[in-house]
Amino acid sequence: MRQAFAHTAVLVLEDGGDERTPGGAITLALCGSWSHDPPCPLAPHHTRVHRAGGELTLRLLFAAEPGDEERVRSVVDGVLARGWGDSPDGSRTTWELVESYASSVLPEEEAHARRLVRSGGQAPT
After folding, report:
1. Is the pTM of this model over 0.85?
2. Which candidate, 13, 105, 85, 106, places its Cα nearest to that of 52?
């Protein structure tokens, strides 16, 4: 049975970089496409970002079988460590990964996390 998980990463985004690109890169890596019909192949997920200057804090909620948790985190860490992503319009944004770590689902995220667990598809990223 799926469970909810959270992951946090801090990135330094290039000047003028699109803050949506790291989340899009995660979606592309987890799902194979920015948009697809449900269900997500590996883990329904949602990415939220907070930008302060050039620093971007990325918060990922995802639902996965407990045996797939580390696989999902590995995919996410690999994409973020790569340091770049392309957007659907073909532009590229680069970043430097400062830190990436497993985190707990916050109380204010619990309702969203439950929806992801019940979901056969992907919440918008």
Report:
1. yes
2. 13
